[in-house]
Amino acid sequence: MSIYKYVVVFCILFISCEKNDFHTWQLCDGAELIDDRLSVLSFNRLNGTSINSVSKVIELINPDIIGLQDSFDVGVEIADRFNYCFYGDEETSTAVLSKYSIEVISDSQFKIHLNENNYINFFNIHLPRSPYQPYDIRDTLITTASQAIHQAEQTRGFYVNQLLESINSIDDGMPIVVAGDFNEPSHLDWVYGAENPMQFQFNNDLSPFVVDWPTSNKMFDVGLVDVYRQFFSNPLENPGYTWTPYYNVNEVHDRIDFIYHDQQMDVESVSLIGPDNLSDILILDYESDHRAVFSVFNTTF
User: Fold this and answer.
1) CB–CB of 92/25 below 8 Å?
2) pLDDT tens-digit profile of 147-156?
3) Under a CB-based contact definition with an 8 Å cutoff, are residues 230 and 259 in contact?
4) Fold of the domain spanning 31-298
5) Rama region for 48: left / alpha / beta (φ>0; ψ in -120 to 50; rest)
6) Pairing state of beta strands 95-98 and 65-69?
């Protein structure tokens, strides 16, 4: 980062600390969208991995907007390297990087200004990872679907309800996009015949362990659509696992990273990024333990 930018960052940090604000900074010139295509990346980079691992993903797909999780001290370096607008904090997981100007509503809600007249309402979240109910199901700490739903609600329900309150308050007619690591599977995935429900059959019960996961249901109830399942509706044919490209004994693979939208923009494509044949976009020396989700929208709204 240039010396000038470090000075600006320090000044903004000092002012924000004086105001007891979010202790964050935003550096960018801001551009305007020059065509109708807008690309969004949701990426948990895995804290502790190199800045080069993130750089390779960005160099390959050149996303317009990035919802970054496990950002911490790397996010602002990435923004500086690729000339993105940035909002984040070296002490926190989530950061937003954008080619277009960012108006901050809260530490998870933003307006990304595509041009003078149009913007999108963008959210980036990282929900609590522990306790992780699929592992508790595997370890028979949870043995019924109702227990799984209750524990998931206990773990993440408060944060999801805060998110939904913010979404429900939007009445500007502009598109809504939510990206993030939800750390919870989708009710669209744990269905009859799918891998996880079929492998968890306890007490000699022939019924699969189908779970109507609460967070994805809540997103559906406020009118948001899961981009991946919009494109690939059959979880048996396209499980779309984002957790995890690593293969360990007794690992429970699942789809826990999402991009949601309110259907004001058409979806042109959605892809998974990772190191293996379950990834649509392949990066051989990929370092994260999550596959990333990448979607291209048409902004003729």
Assistant:
1) no
2) 999 999 999 9
3) no
4) Deoxyribonuclease I; Chain A (3.60.10)
5) left
6) antiparallel
